[in-house]
Amino acid sequence: MATEVFSIANPLVTIEQLSASSSQLDGLPADLEASIRYAGAKLTQAAGIQLRLPQEVIAQAIVVFMRFYVGPEGGSFLISSAKDVSAAAIYIMSKISAEPQSARSVLNVYAHLLSIKSSDMPERDSKLGSDLNARFVLEGSYQSERLILLQTEAKILRCLGFETKVIIPHHLALTYLQTLGTLATPPNAQSTALARRTIAYLNTALFSSQLLYLTHQPWSLAAAAVYLAAREVGVKLPGNEWWEVFDVDREELGFLVVGLRSCEGFVESEKEKWAEQRCPLTVEDLEKTLSRLHAKHYGLFCCETSFTNPIIYRNIVTHVLQDNNPGASDGNTAFNN
To answer: Which site from 2, 46, 154, 159 is most exposed, i.e. has the minimal number of CB atoms within 10 Å?
Structure first.
């Protein structure tokens, strides 16, 4: 009988998929797309915490959420709401874990999280509010919400070709630390700090604007996190090029080190950018945000206008880019009177 070999390799995105996304082709500015992607990942993390899912399952759901919106053939934030895809990603990955969640549990948690006024999601279990409508999805709207959840689940699976395999580098990183002889037995303060910092780098990388989990294999991410954590904690690693033992070359390691270091700065900039308001996580909120963006640049009273035509979105962004770059060609003119 043939033995099936388990691979720790993840499917990676291609250069063509990174060059343009479906959202950008629909006219969504790249910086706003990055913000929504980050906010959706944070929402996924918060939902996983509220559902008391293991960190591995939460990380896998975030990667699935990211994969869905990559490339011209992927999903678009202007068509598929980030909050719906986030909920479906949690629902899918919990199904194949040791702690599956019911549709009602997932929908109740998202109803609670989206009712929180703060722009930032809670980092741990939070007490539910007093508003019954905010705490739970009532029976009157449950069936419609459940239908959206199941439809979004099918949409994600179809987009990913039913490829839901996600290998997380956290266990690999701890194995590397043991192999390199940096984890003391019994654990001491330094080895504990090293392990915690390594895991912290890998958790932060889930929110990377460079999509590190989609462009690099888990063993490369693990080696880079170990390298950075050891330098920060002050643990001496072998003098030779130890990362080559784990099939990581110097060039890739250097790129990932820079990428991991930039993650915390990106997270802080996003928190500052959306400190006064919540990043749009639904198609309706995104339409209003783009309407305000248009009004800001042209003084038009269209804050409550909903643009459902991607061509109009593209024209709005064309105007904004031309306004920021007067030397650019006029191109096609939108809203010709």
So the answer is: 2
> Which letter does DSSP use for residue 234 in this model?
T
Region of residue 234 (phi > 0: left; psi between -120 and 50: alpha; otherwise: beta)? left
- Residue 119: per-residue pLDDT: 53
Q: What DSSP state is assigned to residue 246? A: G
**Higher local confidence (pLDDT), 300 or 335:** 300
Tens digit of pLDDT for each residue in 129-187?
434 345 677 777 899 999 999 999 999 999 999 999 999 999 999 999 999 988 877 88
Query: Taking CA 34 as the corner, what is the angle to CA 30 and CA 39, rounded to the nearest 5 degrees?
Result: 145
End-to-end CA distance of the chain: 73
**Contacts of residue 13, Cβ cutoff 8 Å, sequence gap at least 6:** 67, 70, 71, 211, 214, 215
Given a contact cutoff of 8 angstroms between Cβ atoms, the answer to whether 319 and 332 are in contact is no
Q: Give every CB contact of residue 320 below 8 A, 6+ residues apart in sequence.
A: 29, 293, 294, 297
Q: What are all long-range contacts of 250-254, with beta carbons under 8 Å and residues at least 24 apart? A: 252/216, 252/220, 253/220, 253/223, 253/224, 253/227
The pTM of the full predicted model, rounded to 2 decimals, is 0.83
